[in-house]
Amino acid sequence: MGKSCAILQSSYIPWKGYFDMINLVDEFILYDCVQFTRRDWRNRNKIKTSRGLEWLTIPVDSKGNFHARIDEMQTTNTSWAKEHWRTLLHNYAKAPCFSEYKDVLENLYGRTESRKLSDVNRAFLEQICELLKIETTISNATDYTLEGDKNMRLINLCLQAGADTYYSGPAAKSYVDEQLFHQHGIKVIWMSYAGYPEYRQLFPPFEHGVSILDLIFNEGKDAHQYMNSFAVLGSTP
After folding, report:
1. Cβ atoms within 10 A of the Cβ of 100, count?
2. Cα–Cα distance for residue pair 56/162, rounded to 1 Å
3. Cis status of the peptide bond prior to 205, with omega within 30 of 0
4. What is the DSSP string of 132-200?
5. Between 1 and 145, whose confidence is greater?
6. How many CB atoms lie within 10 A of CB 2?
7. Cβ atoms 144, 161 nearer than 8 A
8. What is the largest CA-CA distance in the chain?
9. pTM of this prediction exceeds 0.90
10. Model confidence at 235: pLDDT above 80
């Protein structure tokens, strides 16, 4: 039986599509050994508020670190965690399922002491996967030997992980050499983020591109019904 994997940079409380990709594969490899990009999803994400969309941003020390890798980025403080939790509490306290997850998330934010962005992101990813009952193995690219150019690095990671199927987001079509993957016995499957159904959401109009926490707080244990991967796999938590 074959094995599938995806290789992607870590993100802070990412949207549902990110977790769809995690759920579809056997191993999800965090690719934080690449350059940190400002104003991206690595250290921030959006939530719904009565004032519209709002960014929750982890402050990082990027001044002068123009070529620093994601796994080298440090937060400037740890007080951001309490601030983010207060913001979530203020805006989601009246969400239908908030009370079911309040203690777990409050504890997660309360024990966030690491100054390393990659560690913070991974802790949140693993906790949210647990809430969604996603059992995919999460690993770091640095657990493996990194060699080759952009495409060969990905191919070598797949081969070392024992994967013969590689899932990728549509944005990577501009640089992924699908033929080269095939030559190494790896099938490339492109993710589609179309067709997501709307769910109960505070503060209309509806917005798909917000943190997964929005879906969890509003739909709770039914969150999987609004994620494409569970339908594809034909299973529910």
Report:
1. 14
2. 36
3. yes
4. HT---EEEEGGGS---SSHHHHHHHHHHHHT-SEEEE-GGGGGT--HHHHHHTT-EEEE-----PPP--
5. 145
6. 11
7. yes
8. 53
9. yes
10. no
Question: Which candidate, 116, 171, 119, 125, places its Cα nearest to that of 28?
Answer: 125
C-alpha to C-alpha distance for 142 and 109, rounded to whole angstroms: 26
The Cα–Cα gap between 86 and 93 comes to 10
- Which token pair is 37? 């990009």
Q: Helix H segments across the chain?
A: 16-24, 80-92, 98-110, 117-132, 150-161, 178-183, 212-219, 228-233
Treating both helix axes as pointing N-terminal to C-terminal, what angle do 117-132 and 16-24 enclose, rounded to 10 degrees? 70
Q: Which of 3, 11, 95 is nearest to 46 (CA)?
A: 11
Residues 6+ apart with CB under 8 A from 84: 56, 58, 109
Using the predicted structure, report yes or no on whether residue 236 has a pLDDT greater than 50.
Answer: no
Closest CA to 34 of 61, 73, 4: 73
- Distance between terminal CA atoms of the chain? 23
Cβ within 8 Å of residue 50, ≥6 positions away: 91, 203
- 3-state class (DSSP) for residue 5: strand
Residue 183 CA to residue 181 CA, distance in Å, equals 5
For 136-155, what is each residue's pLDDT tens digit? 999 999 999 999 999 999 99
